[in-house]
C-alpha cells in the first residue's frame, strides 16, 4: 500500500495526581497568583510522583489510546515518543515504553523537538505511513518538565507541568475523506540560546573528554531550563502567525474552514494572538493552559484529548494543531477528524 490516508483512531491523556497551585509557588519564589494568571493564564500544573519517570506517564496515556482504538500493543508497527525529558540518555524512552507495554520487535525511537515534538512526530509518522512503511503507529508526547525546571527562577518555574498524551495512527484507503491533511515544519538554530535546558556537563561536553581514558569528571548535577521569556514570546507570536497562514495556503484552505485550533499551551496570550490572526473565537480553541501549564511535547496531544473526552470533536471537523519550541523549532498539522 502506498500513499495511504492516515487517521487518529485512538487518543489518551494522563496527568500525574499531584496538583501544584500558583499559591504554592508564591511560597517558593517571589511571585503572585495574580501575576501568573494575568501574564500566562496558568492556574495550576500537575507534578510527577517521586517514583515515576517520563516513561510511566507515557505508558498510562498509551494504554488509554490503545483501548480507545480497540487494539493492543501487539497490533502496533512502530512507536515514537516525543520527549525532552527522557528516562535515560539511552536507550530511547520509546524502547522503555515498548517494554513496559509488553510490545516486542517493532521499531521504537524518540524525537527531540521540545514543545514541538508531537507536531514533528505527527508529520514524521504521517510521511512514513503514507509511504507504506507502517500501518499502525503509536505516537506519544510525554514530559517530566518539573525535573529540569530551576525552582529558584520565577521567570520559568511557574510555566511548566508534567503529563503525557498519546495517539494511535492507522493507515486507511487512499481515497478516504477524512484523516491527516499535511504538515509544515520549521527550525532555526540561530535562536538556540534563547530557550534551553542547561546541564553543567551535557553528554558531549568537552569537559567530559577522555584524554586517553585517563580523565573523566563527575557529571552529576541538575539540568535547568533557561529562557529569555520576552524575546521567546515575541518570536513565538510572529512565527506561529506565519506557520498557520503557511499551512492553510499550502493545503488551499481558509481560516474560516477551521473548526478547532489546538495550540501548544505555553501562554494564554500567545494562544490569543494566534487565534486572533485566524479570526477565531476562543470557544473554538482547545484551552488547557490554565489547568496543565506548559507540558512541552505532551501539551498538544493533551489539548486534543481534552476536546475529545469532552465530546467536542465531530467526524469531518478540520483541526489545526500548532507548536513553538526551543531551538527554535515550530510547526503545524492539519487533520480532518475521522473518529
Ligand atoms: O514552550 C516554548 C515556548 N515558550 C514560550 O512561548 C514562553 C514565552 N514567554 C512567555 O510566556 C512570557 O515571556 C513569560 C510568561 C515568561 C514572561 O511574561 P512577560 O510578560 O514577557 O514578562 P517579562 O519577562 O517581560 O517580565 C515583566 C516583569 C519583570 O519585572 P520588571 O523587570 O518589569 O521589574 C519580571 O522580572 O515581570 C517580572 N516577572 C515576574 N513577576 C512575578 C517575571 N516572572 C515573574 C513572576 N512573578 N513569576
Automatic annotation (TrEMBL):
A GO CC term assigned to this protein in UniProt: cytoplasm
Keyword flag Transferase: yes
Reactions catalysed according to its record: malonyl-[ACP] + acetyl-CoA + H(+) = 3-oxobutanoyl-[ACP] + CO2 + CoA
EC number(s) stated in the UniProt entry for this protein: 2.3.1.180
Main location: cytoplasm
Top-rank EC class of the record's enzyme: transferase
InterPro entries: ACP_syn_III_C, ACP_syn_III_N, FabH, Thiolase-like
Swiss-Prot/TrEMBL GO biological process terms: fatty acid biosynthetic process
Residue ranges of the region described as ACP-binding: 265-269
GO molecular function, one term: beta-ketoacyl-acyl-carrier-protein synthase III activity
Catalytic residues identified in the record: 115, 264, 294
Residue stretches making up the Beta-ketoacyl-[acyl-carrier-protein] synthase III N-terminal domain: 110-189
Entry remark concerning the domains of this protein: The last Arg residue of the ACP-binding site is essential for the weak association between ACP/AcpP and FabH.
NCBIfam families to which the protein is assigned, alphabetical: fabH, PRK09352.1
Stated role: Catalyzes the condensation reaction of fatty acid synthesis by the addition to an acyl acceptor of two carbons from malonyl-ACP. Catalyzes the first condensation reaction which initiates fatty acid synthesis and may therefore play a role in governing the total rate of fatty acid production. Possesses both acetoacetyl-ACP synthase and acetyl transacylase activities. Its substrate specificity determines the biosynthesis of branched-chain and/or straight-chain of fatty acids.
Family stated for the protein in its record: Belongs to the thiolase-like superfamily. FabH family.
Protein name per UniProt: Beta-ketoacyl-[acyl-carrier-protein] synthase III
Species this protein is from: Mariprofundus erugo
Amino acid at each position: 500500500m502506498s500513499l495511504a490516508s492516515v487517521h487518529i483512531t485512538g487518543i489518551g491523556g494522563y496527568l500525574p495526581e499531584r496538583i501544584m497551585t500558583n499559591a504554592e509557588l508564591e511560597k517558593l519564589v517571589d511571585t503572585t497568583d495574580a501575576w501568573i494568571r494575568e501574564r500566562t493564564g496558568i492556574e495550576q500544573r500537575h507534578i510527577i510522583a517521586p517514583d515515576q519517570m517520563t516513561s510511566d506517564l507515557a505508558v498510562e496515556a498509551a494504554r488509554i489510546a490503545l483501548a480507545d482504538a480497540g487494539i493492543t500493543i501487539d497490533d502496533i508497527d512502530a512507536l515514537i515518543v516525543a520527549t525532552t525529558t527522557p528516562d535515560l540518555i539511552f536507550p530511547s524512552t520509546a524502547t522503555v515504553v515498548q517494554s513496559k507495554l509488553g510490545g516486542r520487535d517493532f521499531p521504537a525511537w524518540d524525537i527531540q523537538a521540545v514543545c514541538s515534538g508531537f507536531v514533528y512526530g505527527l508529520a514524521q509518522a504521517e510521511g512514513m505511513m503514507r509511504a507504506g512503511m507502517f500501518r499502525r503507529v503509536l505516537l506519544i508526547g510525554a514530559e517530566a518538565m518539573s525535573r529540569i525546571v530551576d525552582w529558584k527562577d520565577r521567570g520559568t518555574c511557574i510555566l511548566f507541568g508534567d503529563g503525557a498524551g498519546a495517539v494511535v495512527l492507522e493507515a486507511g484507503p487512499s481515497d478516504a475523506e477524512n484523516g491527516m491533511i499535511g504538515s509544515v515544519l520549521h527550525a532555526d538554530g540561530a535562536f538556540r540560546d534563547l530557550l534551553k535546558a542547561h546541564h553543567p556537563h551535557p553528554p558531549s561536553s568537552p569537559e567530559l573528554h577522555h584524554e586517553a581514558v585517563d580523565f573523566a569528571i563527575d557529571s552529576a548535577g541538575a539540568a535547568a531550563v533557561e529562557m529569555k521569556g520576552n524575546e521567546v514570546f515575541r518570536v513565538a507570536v510572529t512565527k506561529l502567525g506565519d506557520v498557520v497562514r503557511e499551512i492553510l495556503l499550502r493545503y488551499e484552505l481558509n481560516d474560516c474552514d477551521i473548526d478547532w485550533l489546538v495550540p501548544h499551551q505555553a501562554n494564554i496570550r500567545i494562544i490569543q494572538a494566534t487565534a486572533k490572526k485566524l479570526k477565531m473565537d476562543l470557544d473554538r480553541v482547545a484551552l488547557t493552559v490554565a489547568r496543565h501549564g506548559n507540558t512541552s511535547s505532551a501539551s498538544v496531544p493533551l489539548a486534543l484529548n481534552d476536546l475529545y473526552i469532552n465530546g467536542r470533536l465531530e467526524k469531518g471537523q478540520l483541526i489545526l494543531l500548532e507548536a513553538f519550541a526551543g531551538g527554535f523549532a515550530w510547526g503545524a498539522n492539519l487533520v480532518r477528524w475521522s473518529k
